[in-house]
Design a protein that fits this description.
Blueprint (H helix, E strand, L loop, with lengths): L1 H18 L3 H6 L5 E6 L14 E8 L5 E11 L12 E11 L5 E8 L9 H12 L7 E8 L2 E9 L22 E5 L10 E4 L2 E7 L5 H20 L2 H7 L2 H14 L9 E6 L2 E4 L19 H7 L19 H13 L1 H6 L6 H20 L16 H22 L2 E7 L11 H11 L9 H6 L8 H11 L11 E7 L1
Parallel strand pairs: 1-6
Antiparallel strand pairs: 1-2, 2-3, 3-4, 4-5, 5-7, 6-7, 8-10, 8-11, 9-10, 11-12, 13-14
């Protein structure tokens, strides 16, 4: 009997062991895109940035079963992520011709980010989603994927469109024949690489991204334009500044990076592009060391600031040192924050964006951390990871909630409830509201804070006599196409 029982237990244990899926086997049945890369020399796992591009073959299988199979060149990308001790490397890969990848359009060059410094694997996705919400120009598309390199499972990566010139990327004209060429820059405070061209203007330093091999005349051209822009930011009027920069993109880019408190904003990975005679801020890039993921115990001002949910961090960085001291620019930031207040508030609300992203990708993240360990600490600037995924996730969620609360208070944002058509705000809609509309339109009564217009502009357009007409119809109980008298909410700023 004991022998029989022992045999049963042995077979049961063996069967259980055989049925435990490895990370690789579990991924076979997942709906996550699968990327398999084989280097010609079989040296993918030992590649370093200094090795440059090596020949390889890639097979990309999308969740819908479609397959891209082609030769590529592969190299290690990044700066901190490319350090020798970081074994989960990020990569660039490029095709011989423009190729569609995971439904993100066609391009020759693609980025594959390891997100190894982020124990939630969510920060880059979260920041890029916010950039999309803010409608920052040319924000890169992104897709999670599972990666195998030379047969070794490497876990969860994010595939991105890299920030570069192109019709499906940053759509600028770098080869114009009229002498007014566009260009793409990356702010670089101090880093130097042998194959990169640099320009300096007004105390700011930039790497040339596109054109990536400018001649002497182009370098002089870019330097002159940037010098003029910096001087205008320093000494120009609001109207003059608006003629040389796209203020809307600059305000949106600032809000994104101030909310996220990215540690790189005064150092690197910060892009600007010049198009049709105007400088734009963005596209967004690189947010793994952001959203609270900086080591506040370091003797570094940026790390200490970035670890906290309170305080303003980016106002003295790059171009913004000349903009954030201007009241009209602060008003632009407040206007954009108020417009996107609900989205930012819902990033970390229960059941909202963060919770949804986690639920959609938890199985993928679990497989990744079976290989890499959720508590692994790769870099001293990185916040030391907590013990479990839950711990790290809850930290991020709470950090986003507290950051939004602090910033909304700093900018004087508040929810304002009102009745549609209640122009004077006394809690009812009557003929006095019609009179107030007429007085505002006739410039007899001021509307300095915009609340009269908010309550009385029934069509959500500019206040005009049509609003008075429809209020009169409502008062005498005639039908109107607008919800007069119904409760509504808006986010305002002081």
């Amino acid at each position: 009997m004991k022998r029989t029982l022992a045999l049963i237990l042995t077979l049961t244990a063996l069967f259980s062991f055989l049925c435990i899926p490895t990370a690789a086997n579990a991924a076979e049945n997942s709906t996550v895109p699968k990327i398999e890369i084989t280097t010609d020399a079989g040296n993918g796992l030992s590649l370093e940035k200094a090795d440059g591009y090596v020949s390889a073959h890639i097979t990309i299988t999308d969740a819908d079963g479609s397959v891209t199979d082609d030769a590529i060149n592969l190299k290690v990308r990044g700066n901190s992520t490319a350090m020798e001790h970081v074994t989960k490397k990020s990569f660039n890969f490029k095709f011989a011709k423009k190729t569609e990848v995971l439904g993100m359009g066609k391009g020759k060059k693609w980025a594959m980010l390891a997100n190894c410094f982020d124990p939630t694997l969510l920060r880059n996705t979260l920041a890029f989603d916010l950039a999309q919400e803010l409608d920052l120009p040319y924000t890169s598309q992104q897709r999670y994927a599972e990666v195998w390199l030379d047969g070794s499972y490497r876990g969860c990566y994010t595939v991105y469109e890299p920030v570069q010139e192109g019709r499906d990327r940053v759509d600028i004209d770098i080869e114009s024949n009229d002498g007014k060429k566009d260009f793409l820059l990356e702010y670089e405070a101090s880093r130097t690489e042998s194959d990169v061209y640099y320009v300096s203007a007004g105390g700011l330093r930039f790497a040339m991204s596109d054109p990536d091999e400018p001649n002497d005349d182009q370098l002089v051209y870019v330097t002159d334009i940037l010098t003029n822009i910096v001087n205008t930011m320093k000494n120009g009027t609001e109207e003059e500044i608006r003629q040389v920069i796209d203020v809307d993109s600059f305000a949106k880019f600032y809000l994104l990076n101030e909310y996220a408190k990215t540690g790189d904003f005064g150092l690197s990975s910060v892009f600007f592009f010049y198009k049709d005679g105007v400088l734009y801020a963005g596209p967004a890039w690189d947010y793994d060391l952001a959203l609270g993921n900086l080591n506040g115990d370091l003797n570094s001002t940026a790390a200490k600031q970035g670890s906290r949910t309170d305080g303003i961090m980016q106002a003295d960085k790059n171009f913004y040192r000349y903009l954030t001291n201007k009241d009209w620019f602060q008003t632009e930031i407040k206007r954009i924050y108020a417009q996107h207040y609900d989205y930012i508030e819902n990033i970390s609300a229960d059941g909202a964006r963060l919770d949804t992203l986690r639920a959609e990708n938890q199985a993928l993240f679990d497989r990744n951390f079976k290989t890499w360990s959720v508590s692994r600490w790769w870099l001293n600037y990185q916040k030391p990871p907590l013990r479990t995924y839950d711990d790290n996730y809850n930290f991020l969620k709470n950090w986003c909630t507290e950051r939004h609360l602090w910033l909304s208070d700093y900018y004087g944002l508040y929810r304002y409830s009102y009745l549609r058509g209640d122009s004077d705000g006394n809690g009812e809609v009557n003929i006095l509201d019609v009179t107030l509309i007429q007085r505002v339109i006739a410039n007899v009564q001021s509307d300095d804070d915009g609340r009269i217009t908010l309550r009385a502009a029934l069509s959500d357009n500019a206040l005009d006599i049509t609003d008075a007409t429809y209020l009169q119809r409502y008062i005498i109980q005639m039908p109107t196409p607008y919800p007069v008298g119904e409760s509504a909410e808006a986010v305002l700023y002081q």
